[in-house]
């Protein structure tokens, strides 16, 4: 059957004539009258929901940050039980200080009601509980109740997070409860035809003033992203992300502070050697060179090796190495 792109302005397929004859039964194909062709199927709306404010410029940041673990020996294990409970265990040791940190997280999703229950624990003996409900009260609305408790110190905290996303807009409002007074965090991102504009603020009710006032503007296409930010009117930053090919990602990052003539910048790249191996490289204006290598040993087992070299003090030592192992079953 002819597709919509193959039909002419009268809705006819390539083997049909206006009198209902088929070309195989009537005239030779060489005698077909010229017919103007047009696209009859409507083009799909490709406008997606814009990212939340925290995810603006994320592709560039991931190119700089993922695939490295300087000064750490780290193990991450993810498993899932037959009943659907997800377990995530993480442990790391700092090669400089010898300090060991660990965490355990369990997550259960009740998809029928859009609910997610999460329990957390870490080696600082902090317990956390998180309950999330999504797309139930209204489509695109996500509510999260997050609490933490430290038995050693008796410190407690509670947060209520809301997020609402639709085409062209992504809104967020979090309330961080404190005995001195709640802090309100708000953000909004608007997107149209690849252009993005965002605003983020924090209002400290205890001091009755804005403690954070950030703006961001960017442009995003399939393989190119550009973002600029202004934080509190004094810190300026920008990032460029370019997917050069299916196997090569590149990123550039710039930052400077008002009253300081020094510009901080860095360049990073990630190259996919094959489906199971990738190499990452980054360098900044302080001559710090980072190299990372990621290898999937087998499905569910990933090894990461990384090194940070101080180019200005190459012979003085102080370089860092890292080792990471991710297991998933």
Low-confidence stretches: 1-12, 14-31, 35-46
The averaged pLDDT comes out at: 87
Number of helices: 1
Measured on Cα atoms, how large is the radius of gyration?
A: 27 Å
Which structural category do the helix and sheet elements fall into? mainly beta
Number of strands: 19
Largest sheet: 19 strands, mixed, barrel
Overall geometric form: globular
Question: From N to C, what is the helix and strand string?
Answer: HEEEEEEEEEEEEEEEEEEE
Helix content: under 10%
Q: What is the end-to-end distance?
A: 44 Å
Strand content: over 45%
What features would you describe in this structure?
Catalyzes the scrambling of phospholipids across the outer mitochondrial membrane; the mechanism is unrelated to channel activity and is capable of translocating both anionic and zwitterionic phospholipids. InterPro entries: Porin_dom_sf (IPR023614), Porin_Euk (IPR001925), Porin_Euk/Tom40 (IPR027246). It is found in: Mitochondrion outer membrane. Keywords: Acetylation, Ion transport, Membrane, Mitochondrion, Mitochondrion outer membrane, NAD, Nucleotide-binding, Porin, Transmembrane, Transmembrane beta strand, Transport. The chain has 329 residues and is an all-beta fold. It is built from 1 helix and 19 strands. The chain is globular. The relative contact order is 0.13. Mean pLDDT is 87; it is low at 1-12, 14-31 and 35-46.
């Amino acid at each position: 059957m002819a597709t919509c792109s193959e039909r002419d302005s009268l809705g006819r397929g390539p083997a049909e004539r206006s009198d209902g004859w088929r070309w195989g039964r009537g005239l030779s194909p060489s005698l077909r009258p010229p017919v103007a062709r047009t696209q009859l199927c409507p083009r799909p709306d490709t406008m997606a929901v814009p990212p939340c404010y925290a995810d603006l410029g994320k592709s560039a940041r991931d190119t700089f940050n993922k695939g490295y673990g300087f000064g750490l020996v780290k193990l991450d294990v993810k498993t899932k039980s037959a009943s659907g409970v997800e377990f995530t265990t993480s442990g790391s040791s700092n090669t400089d200080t010898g300090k060991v940190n660990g965490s355990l997280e369990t997550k259960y999703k009740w998809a029928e009601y859009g609910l997610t229950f999460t329990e957390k624990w870490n080696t600082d003996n902090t317990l956390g509980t998180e309950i999330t409900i999504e797309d139930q009260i209204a489509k695109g609305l996500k509510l999260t109740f997050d609490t933490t408790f430290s038995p050693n110190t008796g410190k407690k905290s509670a947060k209520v997070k809301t997020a609402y996303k639709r085409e062209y807009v992504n809104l967020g409002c979090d309330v961080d409860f404190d005995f001195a007074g709640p802090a309100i965090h708000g953000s909004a991102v608007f997107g149209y035809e690849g252009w993005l504009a965002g605003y983020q603020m924090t209002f400290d009710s205890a001091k009755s003033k804005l403690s954070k006032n950030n703006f961001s503007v960017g442009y995003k296409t399939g393989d190119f992203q550009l973002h600029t930010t202004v934080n509190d009117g004094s810190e300026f930053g920008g990032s460029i992300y370019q997917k050069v090919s299916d196997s090569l990602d590149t990123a550039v990052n710039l930052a400077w502070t008002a009253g300081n003539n020094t510009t901080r910048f860095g360049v990073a790249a990630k190259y996919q050697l094959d489906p199971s191996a990738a190499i990452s490289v980054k360098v900044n204006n302080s001559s710090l060179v980072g190299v990372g290598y990621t290898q999937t040993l087998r499905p569910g087992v990933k090894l990461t090796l990384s090194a940070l070299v101080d180019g200005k003090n190459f012979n003085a030592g102080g370089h860092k190495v890292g080792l990471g192992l991710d297991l998933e079953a």
